[in-house]
Specification:
By secondary structure, this protein is an alpha+beta fold. It has 3 domains: 111 residues, 2-Layer Sandwich (Alpha-Beta Plaits); 97 residues, Chitinase A, domain 3 (Roll), CATH 3.10.50; 170 residues, Trigger factor, domain 2 (Orthogonal Bundle), CATH 1.10.3120. The protein has 10 helices and 11 strands. The strands form 3 sheets. Strands 6, 7, 8, 9 and 10 form a 5-stranded antiparallel beta sheet that branches. The chain has a 4-stranded antiparallel beta sheet with strand order 1-2-4-3. It is elongated and about 100 Å long. The two termini are 56 Å apart. The model has no long low-confidence stretch (mean pLDDT 92).
Amino acid sequence: MKLDVEDLGATKKRLKVEIPADAIKAAIEEAYKEVGKTAKVDGFRPGKAPRHILVKYYSDSVEANVLERIVPEYYGKALDEADLTPIDRPHIEEGSLKIKKDQPLTFTATVEVKPVIVLGEYKGITVKDEPLEVSDSDMDEALAELRSMHSTLETVEEDRASVKGDFVVIDFEGFKDGEPIQGGKAENYPLELGSSSMIPGFEENLEGAKKGETREFTVRFPEEYRNKDLAGAEATFKAAVKELKSKVLPELDDELAKDLGIGQTLAELKDKVREDILMMKKRGVAQKQKEEIVRELVRLHDFELPPTLVEKEFRSMMVRRYQEVVGNGMPTGKASEELKEFEPRAKAIAQDRVKTTLVLSAIADKEGIKVTEKEMEAGIRMIAAETGHTPQQVMEMYKKREGGLEDLAAMIGEDKSLDFVLSHAKKA
């Protein structure tokens, strides 16, 4: 094989590859053998047609088959010989793909590749350190949240007004311009006052209400409400309080520790809570330090970025942003305006993300950092826990995506490289 590599830039190469004539001949022979096994030609039994007959009827398909096999094979060999890592499919000039008897085949492929990165001094980056301590207020807040999570609801028997934190069981119906709102009616609806689960003003208008009381009030839907017909509109609601329930917190004692399966005593429960708080704080500090490292790695390295990777990251960010704002109730028209404003910042962020990915990949190559099968399994389990899916479902989702499990491995690898750089950082 003869190979000529032409630089079209730091991230773009043109490969001129010459496939030897004997390799072409061998591939043609193999192709005709395969065709001959099943070829159906009038006057001949299957598999018995002579070569000149096969050439007459199947030369075009044999040539196409040979090109389909041999060009990718030698393209791969060319990449290996030139030590290039492609980041996109090559553009092959198909006009030159003509097989001539006893002649070598030359084809030209233009491909975008990873740039050669000269790594800066990534060991010894200074990051800000923070003292790790668990305060009394941290403990009080965590224990209060724990009690709230394991609270029970009890019906309020006494004749009292509802307060924030109570649950009111209501029948309600909404009206706009005197007409019932579609989907704006419910019966026996449990609502926690102060939870902000309803539109602004709804819960506040029910504070102080008693069982058996009906209230009528007017509220305004948010401008970004997902239903365009209701966005920014005033509506009148009628709500009848059928029942009042209060949240009963468990006692903070040894029994709570036993019920939760965290030790046998309150002291053991508190030790576990303290340990969890400390772990979360450690993770928070480490995350901030990693962000500092990323900013420094971006600053330290200056090289040409592959346009395809930047564009891919930019488009992905724009799609996610659109889905996020529309999912939060923003009308599509306003969401499009939001995207236009976000576009310049998205392009800058995309460039930094691509640069970070390439630098961390180069560090991984230099330091021999690889993602193990166990780390892949752990990553899948973590995503499953965060999304509420099973590990198998996460596997299937990634397999269906463009990039598949390779993208997941790359993400885990990036974090592993970041951990490596952090382990060699100076903390001040």
